[in-house]
Amino acid sequence: MIILKKYKFDILLIIGLLAVGVLLLVLWLTSIRGVVGTTAYVSRNGEEILKIDLKYNNTYEINGTETKMVIEVKDGHLSVTSSGCPDKICVHHESISRVGEEIICIPNKVIIKVVE
Predict the structure, then answer these.
(1) Do 25 and 43 reside in the same domain of the chain?
(2) Where do runs of H (alpha helix) occur along the chain?
């Protein structure tokens, strides 16, 4: 009981700092991931090959360095619907719509990134 009284303010300070830290982390994560993008850029080997407007539903077929890829935009979300790459990680990736999100196909050397 005496020990608890002695460290009471230290414990309150630690709990307060942890609460502030968690609050700042939540605010930071929501500000970064919260902005819905309007455009996506597709690059192959570091060279931009396609600019996609996410406002319009459409399907795009591009040539990667190894195989063809099909990119679909539906209701502001972009996804890769087919690719000839062996693992198909890009096809299984969830659709993207927020600024900074990317889909990467390493065998085809293709990066799709959502921007403002």
Answers:
(1) no
(2) 2-6, 8-33, 89-92
